[in-house]
Design a protein that fits this description.
Pfam families: HATPase_c (PF02518), HisKA (PF00512), PAS (PF00989), PAS_9 (PF13426). One of its GO terms (cellular component) is plasma membrane. It comes from Lichenibacterium ramalinae. This protein is an alpha+beta fold and 686 residues long. The protein folds into 5 domains: 146 residues, Beta-Lactamase; 153 residues, GAF domain (Beta-Lactamase); 105 residues, 2-Layer Sandwich (Beta-Lactamase), CATH 3.30.450.20; 85 residues, Orthogonal Bundle (Helix Hairpins), CATH 1.10.287; 153 residues, Heat Shock Protein 90 (2-Layer Sandwich), CATH 3.30.565.10. Helices cover 42% and strands 26% of the residues. The chain has 22 helices and 22 strands. The strands form 5 sheets. A 5-stranded antiparallel β-sheet has the order 2-1-5-4-3. The longest helix has 40 residues.
Length: 686
């Protein structure tokens, strides 16, 4: 009997019955379709007749049972062939087989833990079921399906081991004890014979030396381990993967197996487990994942324990620092009450620790107004994330226990303990440093004198520096004219233009430096002359318009009524206006730059000519304004790299204004623009 002998099993329900065979019906095609159906079931399937003899078998069943040829199974009594012995080794008569009850009751039978035997006389536990096959209402056989339960049993075994390891590591256990319990739980849980645990010394990522920290011996241990890690352990650590190898257990004995499981966490290799077994060790995908999980579990345990040890060491170190620090260290809460007071603070302020703890810092050693203005705000800074004010060094006036006041340097660092804001205040007595300020001031004066001498020297060298540079520019101009008359002027003219432009730029930079040197050395002269203010304003505007428009800006010019003329140094007035307009163009983009001139009455009824340069650019903060007119300085350290310039323009303009009897002032709103105001007497002093 075959599966295709039964009409109920045909693969096409709409096809005609096999009764009254159609000569066109291809039995071989029908058989192929049925075989494919059997192979697609995903488990072992075979059929038997009412006498228990095999009528068909799929490929999966043959593989599970270890047979290569269907002929070895077809016609054989399947119970006697694969189901003949119970798990305890006793015989299993066919009459006792519950699967054969299908022929009596006509109902399916399911067994969830049966022992089946392979061709090579090895066995495996299987899930085993029998379903009747009917022909015209009569049971003519049964279809039996089975699956190997070994993988499920191994999965339960792996899960049990992981749970036991988790219980060990989750408790409050010492590292050494935890290592011994873990290696015993893994080795005994998987039924292996002995094992060792190896951890790295030094930098694990650099292949640090492996040290054996724990060993385990099961009931069948044979002492195969050594004092040094074997090559499989080194490979497991280096490659961060489980390594399986065959090894000889003892001389003359059949080989066993060794498995090395890496230990690590977050990509950091910490070591490896090593286990040996007389029986074969299988490392399939499920086992490999389970071993990796165990390695991570132990890695996390070791990292946690090491972190706890480092924390203890940190606390010890902190105590040592507090006790030996040369500066006073005072820990306060957000209400400025003292929590800790180190020996240096006792020596500096003259208060014993027991007397200081619990007191407010302001009532003890620091002025209360300082605390109100600073320390009381630190808690809010910490909560809002605005902690930029912390960590800075500030000078305060502190007070000793005897009432003596002295200068101190203070720095405060925020900390959080259990969600509670605290602050560590570092205080240093700077009385000695203050005494040295006079010497520092003298050294600064000497340096300034040396700098003045340098400026005088540079002023004397101005002619020698300007002469060759002027020659370079002159020759560049002549070459451009000659190139334009030559055969191919377009090749050379652009390069010559670049030479001239860069030379002029260099000349402007050198002029700034030389002008500053002449100002510092007192050699800058004033050459007053009469000129019309409106004319000079429009001349400057015409010169600077291309620079203003380069960044998409618009230049607006206003000359007030009756502004008239003035008697002053025309060149210096122009240079001041050009410097201010250049800066306005530099720091404004897509906005408006305004140049205006008005006449007003100044002190002692003197007429003043007031020039204003306004822009809608980036503006400046108060801190930036404070550095604005310093020589060789700009509003920000990054300004030179981003916008260019030497930082001398404003300082030179400030000096020119003073030489002409006037001044330059500035107002600015950060992000909204700046206004520079030059106020000069209409008649410059002689």
């Amino acid at each position: 009997m075959t599966l295709t002998d039964f009409d109920e099993c045909r693969t096409d329900p709409n096809a005609p019955s096999r009764t009254g065979a159609d000569p066109r019906f291809d039995a071989d095609v029908s058989r192929v379709d049925a075989d494919r159906l059997l192979e697609s079931l995903g488990g072992g399937v075979y059929g038997i007749d009412r006498h228990g003899r095999c009528t068909f078998v799929n490929r999966t069943a043959m593989d599970l049972l270890g047979y290569d040829d269907r002929a070895e199974l077809i016609g054989r009594h399947m119970h006697d062939l694969i189901h003949h012995t119970r798990p305890d080794g006793s015989a299993y008569p066919a009459g006792d087989c519950p699967l054969l009850r299908t022929f009596v009751t006509g109902e399916p039978v399911l067994l969830d833990d049966e022992l089946l035997w392979r061709k090579d006389r090895t066995s495996f536990f299987a899930e085993y079921s029998s379903h009747p096959v009917l022909a015209d209402g009569t049971i003519v056989g049964s279809v039996i399906r089975f699956e190997d339960l070994s993988s499920k049993r191994q999965g339960r075994q792996r899960l049990a081991v992981q749970q036991e390891v988790s219980q060990v590591l989750g408790g409050d256990v010492d590292v050494a004890v935890g290592q011994e319990r873990v290696i015993a739980a893994i080795g005994s849980g998987f039924g292996w014979d002995e094992g060792a645990m190896w951890l790295t010394e030094g930098a694990a990522s650099d292949g640090g030396r492996l040290k054996r920290v724990a060993i385990w011996a099961g009931p069948r241990a044979f002492g195969a381990g050594g004092e040094s890690a074997g090559p499989h352990v080194l490979q497991a650590v280096a490659e961060t993967r489980t390594v399986l190898a065959d090894v000889a257990m003892t001389a003359g004995a059949r080989p066993g197996a060794v498995v090395a499981i890496p230990i690590g966490v977050d990509g950091i290799n910490l070591g490896a487990f090593e286990f040996t077994s007389r029986r074969a060790i299988a490392v399939d995908h499920g086992a490999d994942a389970a071993f990796a999980t165990l390695g991570r579990q132990v890695g996390q345990f070791l990292r946690r324990k090491r972190a706890e040890a480092e924390l203890r060491d940190s606390e010890t170190l902190k105590d040592a620092i507090m006790q030996t620090a040369l500066d006073g260290i005072v820990v306060i809460d957000e209400e400025t009450r003292i929590i800790q007071f180190n020996p240096a603070a006792e020596r500096t302020f003259g208060w014993a620790r027991d007397a200081a703890v619990g007191q407010e810092l302001g009532a003890l050693i620091l002025p209360a107004d300082f605390l109100v203005g600073h320390l009381k705000k630190f808690a809010r800074f910490l909560e809002d994330g605005e902690i930029s004010a912390l960590g800075k060094h500030v000078e305060v006036e502190a007070e000793r226990a005897n009432g003596e006041r002295f200068p101190a340097e203070l720095a405060v660092t925020p900390i959080k303990v259990g969600g509670r804001a605290m602050f560590t205040a570092y205080l240093r007595d700077i009385t000695a440093r203050k005494r040295a300020d006079g010497e520092v001031a003298k050294a600064r004066d000497d340096a300034q004198a040396a700098n003045l001498a340098k400026s005088t020297f540079i002023a004397n060298m101005s002619h020698e520096l300007r002469t060759p540079l002027s020659a370079i520019i002159g020759y560049s101009e002549m070459l451009q004219e000659e190139m334009l008359d030559g055969d191919d002027p377009e090749v050379f003219a652009p390069d010559m233009a670049k030479i001239e432009a860069n030379a002029r730029h260099l000349l402007g930079l050198i002029n700034d430096v030389l002008d500053l040197s002449k100002i510092e050395s007192g050699k800058m002269e004033v050459f007053p002359e009469d000129f019309d203010v409106g004319t000079i304003v429009h001349d400057v505007a015409s010169t600077v318009t291309p620079l203003v428009e380069k960044k998409g800006n618009r230049l607006a010019v206003t000359v007030g009524p009756g502004v008239g003329g003035m008697h002053s140094d025309l060149t210096k007035v122009k240079q001041m206006l050009l410097n201010l307009l250049s800066n306005a163009s530099k720091f404004t983009e897509g906005g408006t730059v305004t140049l205006s001139a008005t006449r007003s009455e100044g002190p002692e009824a003197r007429d003043l000519i007031v020039f204003e340069v306004r822009d809608s650019g980036i503006g400046m903060t108060d801190e930036q304004l404070g550095r604005l007119f310093q020589r060789f300085a700009q509003a920000e350290a990054s300004t030179s790299g981003k916008f260019g310039g030497t930082g001398l323009g404003l300082s030179i303009s400030k000096a020119f204004a003073a030489m002409l009897g006037g001044d330059i002032t500035v107002s600015s709103v950060y992000g909204r623009g700046s206004t520079f105001r030059i106020a000069l007497p209409a008649d410059a002093p002689a």
